[in-house]
């Protein structure tokens, strides 16, 4: 079904956004890498960004907002899709009652409507995903200074995501502290639907 394919595509985009965010956090700490290599006493902080982006209150709120918008859009699209299905059945029933030329024109008109509907589904899905990414970007702008404060407070020369680490001797686990600060200090973001440029 058209709507199911759009939903799977949306899931893939969300995973890409999360992966990009993890990499940004790794880059955020990379400026301190030479200091960490220069001394064996350097403190290396470790955070589980996947957990943070899964359990952070403000991210849950954004996901809930997007889900509500998706549910509303899907209900409207489902109604439109059902109308198209009914129209197709009517055209098939009229096949023996109209001339071949009239039937061909009806088929052509229907195919045009179906193609426009598929484009509409793709555009709405893209619109929702861009809106979600924009909201997460606003969160990221608030997060990085807070992570930096936790890093400085603990004397960490470098902060890495746990998924990027093969082995670190005596790492400083700061995930819970970072989450506590973020849940306390991050402002909630309203997901705003972005207008899409017509192609």
Automatic annotation (TrEMBL):
Superkingdom field: Bacteria
Residue ranges that the Swiss-Prot or TrEMBL entry lists as coiled coil: 52-97
UniProt xrefs under InterPro entries: Chaperone_Skp, Skp_dom_sf
Alphabetized SUPFAM superfamilies for the sequence: OmpH-like
Keyword terms of this UniProt record: Coiled coil, Signal
Keyword match ATP-binding: no
Recorded family membership: Belongs to the Skp family.
Name of the protein in its database record: OmpH family outer membrane protein
Organism: Sneathiella sedimenti
